[in-house]
Amino acid sequence: MTRTHGSILLADDEEKILKRLGRALRNEGHDVVEAVTASKAQQHLNTQSFDLLVVDNVMPGMTGLELVREMADTMTPAERPQIVMMTAHGTTQLVREAFKLGVEDFLEKPFEVEELLALARRAVARVRLQTERQYLISERDAEFNHYGIVGRSRAMEEIIQRAELVAQTKSTILITGETGTGKEMVARLIHNRSAQRDMPLIKVNCAAIPETLLESELFGHVRGAFTGASLTKRGKFALADGGSILLDEIGTLSTGVQSKLLRVLQEREFEPLGAERTQQVDVRVIAATNRDLRHMVSEGRFQEDLYYRLHVIPIELPPLRERREDVPVLVDHFVAKHRLRTGKRIDGVDDDAAQALQAYDWPGNVRELENTIERAVVLATTPVLTAAAISLLGAAAAPTPGLPSLRLHHNIEWVERETMRRSLAQAGGGKKDAADLMGISQRALSYYLAKYRVD
Ligand SMILES: Nc1ncnc2c1ncn2[C@@H]1O[C@H](COP(=O)(O)OP(=O)(O)OP(=O)(O)O)[C@@H](O)[C@H]1O
Ligand SMILES: [Mg+2]
After folding, report:
1. If you measure from the C-alpha of residue 369 to the centroid of ligand 1, how many angstroms do you get, rounded to a whole number?
2. Fewest CB within a 10 Å sphere: which of 77, 129, 219, 302?
3. CA distance 372 to 225
């Protein structure tokens, strides 16, 4: 739990000292970036976040104290690293001002390397604690913020209100909406707000399971029920007993399974495949689909009775293009989310980018928006995302005339993996150089390397 190594920015104009301290800190497991001037240090601070800045005061050009003053002006307390200042002859006045500006500690030159290591350990531990605290606060906020569902449009406000309300009942709920509109998020909100929140929410993607297996997946089977059924298996309904079950892509159910589901909804009971005994269950059913079930009923592809059973409480999520007011808040939300994840310093998007994001039609809805922002944050080389940065890669999407065009690539994983591979190749396999090339910390790089199993 106590990870005591962090990312450290070290600034000193004396290269020999810089190298020696850098080596000692690296030996302790820290990621260290070295800067020979305050303005070099400043550049690093602009593109990357650090746990700790160790800065010499007396340097040609900008002094350490001036750098710290600058930081106090331009960075929020959350963005600012811990600061240790090195001085040869610190006057009381200097020390007083430095403390006021947020410097945590002083090292009087000459000092033992051990002293620095101890201070670094303490500073990094302090940052870890703060991060943990922030995480707990954000968890708590998530609870008050409808479990991460963001939106300020009238439509989303009504949906959230409705979801909170029906969470208190045990009614069946049908959530409809295009792909990526947030159906699963709403389902989770409902479960988390229900009296059954401590019981499981079991999710079944009906489209992902072959028709022949789905019945046994949902209702279970006894040994010998069919060829290959060598063991008795409990189905998802049995597992969800007392909690909720999310039946995703319900529009793909075969007629056989539809009938069985109808019976569960009506009688709260079912028989596992090949079983003689009937099982009772107490499960809240939340169904989701991006299809028009009513239309499927009229075509005879979906049972009318089942449709009405599911349709007791419908929740319809509008596509993002019909609630464009949500785009800016979602953009901010995803920028913050992925900034935190990658450890990069990203302040937001510029006006052109905001306009382009607002004008785009988002056929993949919120999921597509999130992927777009995530990719832009990962690849960003400046703290402000421009329209060009957002349109970096991928197939062209039809631009709205007169607006900066947005080119979108849907597969963020591919982009990230490619970026990793190319930077590593360019850096000749050196992780530090590769991280520098991408403007991310070595920690962030390690995260991605592990994620994509790149070596
Ligand atoms: N209102 C929202 N606020 C924050 N994030 C959202 C919102 N809506 C969707 N998302 C994000 O978009 C992604 C897609 O959401 P979700 O999986 O709930 O969509 P879905 O409607 O179930 O899509 P599909 O039909 O493809 O299964 C998720 O990563 C989710 O976190
Ligand atoms: Mg879904």
Report:
1. 10
2. 77
3. 47
Mutation probe of ligand 1 site: the residue of 206, 366, 369, 370 with most atoms within 8 A of C-beta: 366
Q: How far apart are CA 404 and CA 274, in angstroms?
A: 61
Q: What is the pLDDT of residues 215-259, one digit of tens each?
A: 999 999 999 888 888 888 899 999 999 999 999 999 999 999 999
**C-beta of 374 in contact with ligand 1 (< 6 A):** no
| Element holding 131 (H helix, E strand) | helix 113-144
Contact criterion met (CB below 8 Å) for 371 and 187: no
Tell me which residue has tokens 């069919």. 226
Q: If you compute the radius of gyration of the chain from its CA atoms, what whole number of angstroms results?
A: 28
Task: Determine how many CB atoms are found less than 10 A away from the CB of residue 451.
Answer: 12
Quick one: which of 172, 176, 190, 199 has its CA closest to 265?
172
CA angle at residue 172 from 171 to 175, to 5 degrees?
125
- Is any atom of ligand 1 closer than 6 Å to the C-beta of 148? yes
Whole-number pLDDT of residue 326: 95
Report the alpha-carbon distance of residue 166 to residue 148 in Å, rounded: 18
Query: Among all ligands shown, which has an atom nearest to the Cα of 366?
Result: 1
Nearest to 25 by CA among 43, 6, 40, 42: 6
Sign of CA dihedral 296, 300, 303, 309: positive
Whole-angstrom distance, CA of residue 250 vs CA of residue 228: 26
Q: What is the residue-wise DSSP string for 25-39?
A: HHHTT-EEEEESSHH
Pocket test for ligand 1, best of 159, 161, 173, 181 (most atoms within 8 A of CB): 181
Q: Which two three-digit tokens encode residue 180?
A: 């990526």
The answer to whether 10 and 18 are in contact (CB under 8 A) is yes
**CA of 185, closest atom in ligand 1:** 18
Name 412's Cβ contacts closer than 8 Å, sequence gap at least 6.
371, 374, 375, 378
pTM beyond cutoff 0.70 = no
Q: Which domains, and CATH codes, for the chain?
A: 7-142 (3.40.50.2300), 154-318 (3.40.50.300), 323-451 (1.10.8.60)
Say whether the peptide bond before residue 110 is cis (omega within 30 degrees of 0). Answer: yes
| Placement of tokens 């009318």 in the chain | 304
Note the Cα 123 to chain centre separation in Å. Answer: 27
Element (H, E) at 264: helix 255-267
Whole-angstrom distance, CA of residue 64 vs CA of residue 387: 35
Give the DSSP H or E segment for 176.
strand 173-177
Tens of pLDDT, residue by residue over 147-161, are 789 998 999 999 999
